[in-house]
Structures are given as C-alpha cells and as structure tokens.
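Researcher: Next sequence.
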Amino acid sequence: MFMVGRIMENDVIDLKNLSADAPLLHYNDWPNLSVQPQVRSVVKNEQQKTSSVPRQHRKQLAFHQSLAKSRFVFGGNRTGKSVCGAMETIWYATGLHPFIKIDHACDGWVVSLTRQVQRDVAQAKILQYLPPEWIVKTVMVSGSSFTPAHGVIDFILVRNVFGTVSKIGFRNCEQGRERFQGVSLDYVWFDEEPPEDIYDECLLRLLDRGGVHWVTMTPLKGRSWVYNRIYLRQERLPELACFWMSWDDNPYLSQEEKQFLIANLSPDVLESRQHGHFVAAEGLVFGNFTEANILEPKLIEQADGYYLAIDPGYRNPTGVVWVVAVGENLYVVSDYEVAGLTVADHSQAILQRTSELGWDLKQVRILIDSAANQKTSACEVSTAMQYRNHGLAVDANVNKNLAQGLLEMKTCFCDANQKRSLYVFKNCVHLISELRGYYWGDGEQPQKVNDHTIDALRYVVMDWRRVSHEQVVGLNTLGQGKKDLIKKLAGKRFMSKKL
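Model: Next structure:
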C-alpha cells in the first residue's frame, strides 16, 4: 500500500530532464510544471498568444489534489477530463505526483470501452504527455512498437524516480470480465463509463494494495448504474469525490470553438456534451435541482424563521428536515430518515438534533403530515398526539396539494429568471439523494418511492410561501373541510337564536 498524503514542499521538477535514478522530489508549483495538464497547446486567437499569464484548469487542479480513493469526473466533450486521467496515470507510474506522495513503483490499468477508443483516446493521451525517454519498453497487441500510436498497446514499462520500472497496462471492455481477473494493482483509470461487472472486478484488483481508481466520463447512458450507485449516493460515500467539468471550465477552449460546437450539436444532447449532466432528465421531477442548490454547511445567524417538518412512517422510514428561512431564501440545514423505530425513539432523535443545531424549540414551527391526526386500530392515540406527548408541538394543518407543492418547490430551486431561493446543505444526504432520484410515474403523479424527506420539505415550502405571500392555508382533507363547515353553520344557528 502506498502512502497517500499532501505534498508540502515547493521544489519544481523538470519531468523531461529528470533522470530515472534521481531521488523522489516533492513539488506543488502547478504553473511551472514542465508537463502541464492542458487540453491543447495550440493557441488560436491573438489575445491568448500575447498573454503571459499561465492558464490553469481549476477543475483539473481540484481533481488532482483530491485524496479520495474513488474519483469520478463528469464532463462534457472537450472539457479536459481525459487529460486528467492521463496525467494522473503518468504521475502514478513515474512517482512524480505533485500533490500525493507515492513511495514505491506503481502498476495500473487504463480501461477503455473498445480497442479503437483505447487507441484513439486514452492511449493517445498517455503517449502525448509521457516523455519518450521515460519509456523502457512498449509491448503491442497489434501494430509496431516503433509507431505505437498507430497500433493497440498491451502495456508500457515506464521508468520511475525509485530507480525501478512501473507498468501501465491497457484493457478494453470488449475483452469481457474474465480478462480483468488475477492481478493486483495500485490504480485503475476508467476512460468513460464501463459495464458494472467490469468496474466491480477492477475494484477487486485494487484490494490487496489498497489502490485507488478514477473514472472520466460523459454521462450519456442516462440512469445507468453510475447514476444510481454513484451520482445519487455521492454524499453517503466518504471515500468518493465527484467533479463536474463544462466547456466554460476549460481555459484552452476559445469562445469561437464553443460557439461552433453549440451550433453543430442538437439541443437534446448539449446538457451532457457541454456540461456533463446526465441526459435522462426528461422524467426527473426536479430537473432544475443542480449543484448550484447544494451548499457547504455554514452557520446562519440572522434567521427570520425556523422550520422542522416530519413525514411520519410506520413500516416506511420517517423523514425529517430542519429548514432556516432568511429573507426570500430557505436553507435545509439537516435531515433525518430512519425506519423501524417508535414515535418515542424518533422524538428523542429529533429533539437531540434540534439541540445540536442550537435552536430554541419554542421558536421552531413544527409541521407534520395531516394523516398523523388519524387514529389506528393498534393505537387509540394519534401519531400527532404522540409526538406532542414527547415534547414536539406538531401542527398537522399543512397544505398537501401535491401538484401545487411540487411546482412551488421547482420554482424555488430555479425559476424562469434563473433565480434560486431553496438551498440544501451538503450534509443532507437523504434529501439530496431523493431529489436526484425523484421521477414521474404514470400520469401526473411521481413515483411513490424514496420521497420521505421530499414530502417533509414540501410541507415547509408550502407553509413558507403562504406566510411570505399572506395566502390562506388550504384545507388538508375533505374531512377537515366538513368540520370547518359544521362549525361555521353552528355559529350562524347560535347567532340566529340569540337574536
């Protein structure tokens, strides 16, 4: 297992002139690297030619600085994602990583979808940025080792700073899962999204050495295994880091080139090709919920209101959100989703979380699904009353108009003027996962699955919009409407008799 840690020294290495017998040197002076991770070296406009200021691809920089064992780069075409993969591979092979200390020779794989893609993309990038004098031997599957760029490479033996040799192996998914068995590796670079069984097999290759892997991909397959297993669960996986790259992040892509690409690509693929977004969003309820709505946790001191909303579950999980209102904005600062506990257990957890947030419970408006007012055959006390008995003064008078509630939430996430007023802190992993995986079902109804914290948030949004716009609270149920009507008529009869 190699050592993973930050490089603190400021020595600069000239990769092309360094002897393979040289000791391990450390550096983090990114602008002065001899081999810089950039998309292209040819500058087309005069302004870029005359500029002496080094250009940095900040998203690439963030990727290389990450210490996560699993890294996913979701990027459009020409955003520089493949360069990230190639440079990381070269730095691991040579031992010259600028941000991570590597203390031994490393062996790894570069995995492409097909042989042709291997030759034209990943292999080409490795040969472009790896200086020839560092190559000890190139073994070919097809073609000549004298002109490896025109053939398909099996593996490359590379000099490293330890005075030994590292190995960069090439695999493609056309070979099948069996071709990925039987070896131990230090790293794997997946160029584009691999089949899940091959991905899992490669993870096993990393197990013995505590290795790492990175995936650089344009998400064109929609709700694939990467979407469900990685994208929806990224906040729950501590060893995972995700990065998004768009054309605007690439300083080596001119405005003229961007306009040319926009003019020649159909609108339905631009989201993925330009920004690296998952394309199957036509059925997504909250398609406008993006990374711009997700914030790092922070202390909010000047709050105008505090909300706590509960969507109670019995066999299903109980979902809870804590929301702070500041001016026209709402911030979801915490969430909770647990199944199989009693109301007493949920109440204790909710009270503890509220205390940890430093909230005064007397100042918190606590909402709960109106269905909690109902009694069951198993218990003569309603769920709402049980929560009240455990110290939570819940209000079941919530607006449950689903269509209106979803529309209000979508508007808050991003309206027609690109204004956002609803934000979710990154630590709210249950809510974020539900929002990203909330799809329309048959007809006008969303799929009734994994929506517990979404429902709780919907109660808050509707109540907040009512208060901020001084709207009248809508009736929860037909039964509540009947009760209000009876009270109104009873009052009129009493007044008539009195007169």
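Model: Residues 288-499 form a domain with the Nucleotidyltransferase; domain 5 fold (CATH 3.30.420.280). The chain has two domains: 30-39+54-275, 288-499.
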